[in-house]
Amino acid sequence: MSKQKKDSPKVHKDLEGFDIKIDKFGEIKGNLDIDKINAFLDKNLDDKKLKKED
Protein backbone atom coordinates (compact mmCIF):
# COMPACT_ATOMS: atom_id res chain seq x y z
CA MET A 1 0.00 0.00 0.00
CA SER A 2 1.40 3.40 -0.95
CA LYS A 3 0.78 6.64 0.85
CA GLN A 4 -0.92 9.37 -1.15
CA LYS A 5 0.77 12.74 -1.30
CA LYS A 6 -1.60 15.42 -0.02
CA ASP A 7 -1.61 18.15 -2.67
CA SER A 8 -3.47 21.40 -2.28
CA PRO A 9 -5.96 22.12 -5.06
CA LYS A 10 -5.37 25.05 -7.38
CA VAL A 11 -7.41 28.04 -6.25
CA HIS A 12 -7.89 31.66 -7.28
CA LYS A 13 -5.30 33.97 -5.71
CA ASP A 14 -8.05 35.78 -3.75
CA LEU A 15 -8.99 32.50 -2.04
CA GLU A 16 -5.44 31.40 -1.25
CA GLY A 17 -5.36 29.31 1.93
CA PHE A 18 -9.10 28.61 1.87
CA ASP A 19 -9.93 25.32 3.61
CA ILE A 20 -13.37 23.80 4.05
CA LYS A 21 -14.45 20.64 5.83
CA ILE A 22 -17.71 18.97 6.79
CA ASP A 23 -17.80 17.73 10.39
CA LYS A 24 -19.49 14.57 11.67
CA PHE A 25 -22.74 16.49 12.21
CA GLY A 26 -22.85 17.68 8.59
CA GLU A 27 -21.88 21.26 9.45
CA ILE A 28 -19.66 23.08 6.98
CA LYS A 29 -16.54 24.48 8.63
CA GLY A 30 -14.34 26.94 6.74
CA ASN A 31 -11.40 29.11 7.63
CA LEU A 32 -12.46 32.21 5.65
CA ASP A 33 -15.08 34.74 6.62
CA ILE A 34 -18.37 34.12 4.78
CA ASP A 35 -18.55 37.81 3.79
CA LYS A 36 -15.19 37.52 2.02
CA ILE A 37 -16.40 34.41 0.15
CA ASN A 38 -19.65 36.13 -0.85
CA ALA A 39 -17.77 39.22 -2.06
CA PHE A 40 -15.53 36.99 -4.19
CA LEU A 41 -18.55 35.18 -5.69
CA ASP A 42 -20.38 38.46 -6.38
CA LYS A 43 -17.32 39.80 -8.18
CA ASN A 44 -16.50 36.68 -10.22
CA LEU A 45 -19.81 34.94 -10.99
CA ASP A 46 -22.96 35.99 -12.78
CA ASP A 47 -26.21 35.24 -10.98
CA LYS A 48 -28.32 33.18 -13.39
CA LYS A 49 -31.51 34.11 -11.54
CA LEU A 50 -30.95 37.80 -12.23
CA LYS A 51 -30.24 37.38 -15.94
CA LYS A 52 -32.97 38.59 -18.24
CA GLU A 53 -34.40 35.92 -20.49
CA ASP A 54 -34.45 36.71 -24.20
Give a description of the structure:
There is one protein chain. By secondary structure, this protein is α+β, with helices and mostly antiparallel strands. 20% of the residues lie in helices and 11% in strands. The chain has one helix at residues 34-44; strands spanning 20-22, 28-30. Strands 1-2 form a two-stranded antiparallel ribbon. The protein is extended. 0% of the residues are buried.
List keywords for this structure.
54 residues; alpha+beta; 1 helix
Short structural description:
By secondary structure, the chain is α+β, with helices and mostly antiparallel strands. The protein has 1 helix and 2 strands; from the N terminus they run ββα. It is 20% helix and 11% strand.
Q: Note poorly predicted spans.
A: none
Rounded to an integer in angstroms, the radius of gyration calculated over CA atoms is 16 Å
Measured distance between first and last alpha carbons: 56 Å
Task: Determine the mean pLDDT.
Answer: 81
Structural class: alpha+beta
Shape: extended
In total, the number of strands is: 2
What order do the SSEs take from the amino end to the carboxyl end, as H and E?
Answer: EEH
Number of helices: 1
Kindly state the percentage of residues in helix. 10-25%
Oligomer designation:
single chain
Strand proportion, as a percent range, falls in 5-15%
Q: What profile does the largest beta sheet have?
A: 2 strands, antiparallel
Q: What is the strand arrangement across the widest sheet?
A: 1-2
